[in-house]
Amino acid sequence: MVIIPSQYDIDEKLKEQKEAYLITSLEDYMALIRKHIFPKLALAEEKRKTLKKMIYLLHGITVIGLITCVYFTYQAYLSNTKFWDLFYLLALIPSLIAWVKGEEFIKQQKNDFLTNLLDFIGAFQKGQDTITADFLNNSALFPNIVCQEGREKLSFFSQCRAGLLKHFCPVQIDEAFKGHYKNTLFSVAETLLEYTKGSRKHRRTVSVFKGVMIAIKLQKEINSQSVIYNEFLTFKQAFSDLEKVELEDDEFMKEYNIYSTNQMEVRFILTPRFIERLKKMKQAFQTKRIDMAIFENHLLLCLHVDKNMFEPFSVFKSLYNMRPYVRFYNEMKSVTQLIDVLQIENDKERMQFKNYF
Questions:
Q1: Do the bridges between strand 167-181 and strand 184-197 make them parallel or antiparallel, or are there none, so unpaired?
Q2: CA–CA gap between residue 271 and residue 300 (Å, rounded)
Q3: Is the terminal CB of the chain with fewer CB neighbours within 10 Å at N or C?
């Protein structure tokens, strides 16, 4: 008798295979990239080479134009002739065109890069619905701002309800994806939080956060609120209902400030294994600062990164360069290893509970 597997069985098998990709060896991962991703890049690589030549040409035209302007400006100065500022601006137009073309190419490759990888290396999909304005407000990580979706102007009633001393900050998400690993759901989003402050003449942009946010759904039920900062706070009114938490790890306490409504629950997360994996995550994402929040059965990690993430390509480098793929692998590996630690601690608690009875 032949048993035909159902679509559900096939999907479950594919899901297991995809989850295995992220925990396989780096050598197997690189072989996977060469087999499935690189064949798709032939047309894009030819376009990159053509674009590279065009950019060099446009920059060359700009250089020649500027040299010409400098020469004639000197001659005009001797003859008391002005109006050369316009010619300087015209000379810069080819370089501006080159910059726009390069940005368009990089944006397209960035989108294709994530799409192709998410199809092959994990049970992921583009987009996410966890890291929202309400989610960030509930995290209490940013007590001096009120996050909002989009840039729409809020009503006077909404502003009064939020508080007079808080600023409204739109949540800007560039690239994002979500997935699951060992029955744990998580979301990753390249996020920017900034708001404008001051009147028209003295208006300035205040940066609150730029980098990558990772939200991990915890399997253990957490009813407390905790925030873990990688720097000292400058405002006292932020955590009036939270108490300071001290851990035995002196090195960790030198870097972090911990506040929580439940000392036991935050210690369940901040174990020695977790702290060690957090260091690995810093190395993988090349960041020196990670702020965290534990709330609503979620762990939120905010990795402060100045450069744009998930933007691996350059017009001046081959698309077959393996380094961006290895960096992405290391970043995702650090996330799954952190989930592994949370899974271990959760299993240990289950065993202790079982043995107790």
A1: antiparallel
A2: 16
A3: N
Distance CA 42, CA 245 (A): 55
Tokens of 343: 């899974």
- How many Å apart are CA 327 and CA 310, to the nearest integer? 9
Please state, in angstroms and rounded to a whole number, the distance separating the CA atoms of residues 223 and 226.
10
Most confident of 29-38, 79-88, 112-121, 288-297: 288-297
Pairwise CA distance, residues 167 & 196, whole Å: 9
Contact 302, 213 (CB under 8 A): yes
- Give the type of residue at 357: F
* CA-based nearest residue to 335, from 230, 237, 189, 224: 189
Place of tokens 């759904």: 217
The two beta strands, 290-295 and 257-260, are unpaired
At 124 the three-state DSSP class reads strand
At 131, which amino acid appears? I
pLDDT tens per residue, range 68-93: 877 777 766 555 455 666 777 888 88
Q: Kindly report the length of the chain.
A: 357
353 — alpha (psi -120 to 50), left (phi > 0) or beta? alpha
CA–CA separation, 328 vs 285, rounded Å?
9
Map tokens 């090195």 to a residue.
251
Q: How far apart, in whole angstroms, are the C-alpha atoms of residue 165 and residue 182? A: 43
Report pLDDT digits (tens) over 203-217: 788 888 999 999 999
Residues 354, 139: Cα–Cα separation, whole Å: 32
Question: Tell me, what amino acid is at 93?
Answer: I
Task: Give the mean model confidence (pLDDT) for residues 299-316.
Answer: 80
Q: What stretches of the chain adopt beta strand conformation (E)?
A: 124-126, 145-149, 167-181, 184-197, 204-217, 226-229, 243-245, 257-260, 290-295, 298-304
**CA atoms of 219 and 297, how far apart (whole Å):** 8
Which DSSP symbol is given to 238? G
